[in-house]
From TrEMBL:
<dbReference type="Pfam" id="PF04185">
    <property type="entry name" value="Phosphoesterase"/>
</dbReference>
<dbReference type="InterPro" id="IPR007312">
    <property type="entry name" value="Phosphoesterase"/>
</dbReference>
<keyword id="KW-0378">Hydrolase</keyword>
<dbReference type="GO" id="GO:0016788">
    <property type="term" value="F:hydrolase activity, acting on ester bonds"/>
</dbReference>
<feature type="signal peptide">
    <location>
        <begin position="1"/>
        <end position="19"/>
    </location>
</feature>
<dbReference type="GO" id="GO:0009395">
    <property type="term" value="P:phospholipid catabolic process"/>
</dbReference>
<keyword id="KW-0732">Signal</keyword>
<dbReference type="InterPro" id="IPR017850">
    <property type="entry name" value="Alkaline_phosphatase_core_sf"/>
</dbReference>
<protein>
    <recommendedName>
        <fullName>Acid phosphatase</fullName>
    </recommendedName>
</protein>
Length: 202
């Protein structure tokens, strides 16, 4: 995997975010098994994938990342208890640094490249990621981002009306730092790969 020896600098050129129509947010759901209108986005077409890649132990892997939620709190909810019973629960994961963005970046590229904040970064396209490993073996992949306004969204964040406190300033429902694949140019600037950066409404 390629390494970047120096600290990444902020992008020297301003990139235009994909235009998005404002969503309407509703109150949160009444329980973990009840879908909230907050977690749907605009319709998109489904991905056209080849048949599932047959694995030695399993055929699919799904990672669910929880930001700012204690493990004990998340693990004790009925939905995650049910999921843990159906799969493998790995509990010995730790951050490589702080704050959020460097950890997300490291999970995809194996390195946090000296990042020490949550600013707007883009990692050059010559840096390899887990996507290269998957595609080299013919394994398809996708990322699904909560409250991202459109597929392939490159923007720094997405703000909309605060449904809990309507008189307050708009709330950042989506932030780019939690979407590591879009930070890597090898994904975000590749026309085929970026189509796999999806909203929840697939």
């Amino acid at each position: 995997m390629s390494r970047l020896a120096t600290v990444l600098l902020l992008a020297s050129s301003v990139r235009l975010a994909a235009a998005a129509t404002a969503q309407i947010f509703a109150p949160a759901s009444k329980g973990p098994l009840v879908q909230s209108a907050n977690y749907t986005s605009f319709s998109n077409s489904t991905l056209k994938d080849r048949p599932t890649c047959k694995g030695k132990a399993f055929n699919r892997i799904i990672q669910v990342w929880l930001e700012n939620t204690d493990f004990a709190t998340a693990a004790s909810t009925p939905i995650f208890e049910a999921l843990a019973e159906q799969g493998i629960l790995l509990t010995n994961y730790n951050a490589v640094t702080h704050p959020s963005e460097p950890n997300y970046v490291a999970a995809i590229g194996g390195e946090f490249f000296g990042m020490h904040d949550d600013n707007m970064y883009h990692i050059p396209s010559n840096i390899s990621t887990v996507v290269d490993l998957l595609e080299d073996k013919g394994v398809t992949w996708a990322t699904y981002q909560e409250n991202m306004p459109t597929d392939e969204f490159y923007g720094f964040n997405y703000n909309a009306k605060n449904y809990i406190t309507p008189a307050a300033a708009d709330y950042p429902y989506y932030v780019r730092k939690h979407n590591p694949l879009i930070i890597y140019d090898a994904v975000s600037q590749d026309p085929k790969r970026v189509k796999r950066v999806r909203t929840f409404n697939d």
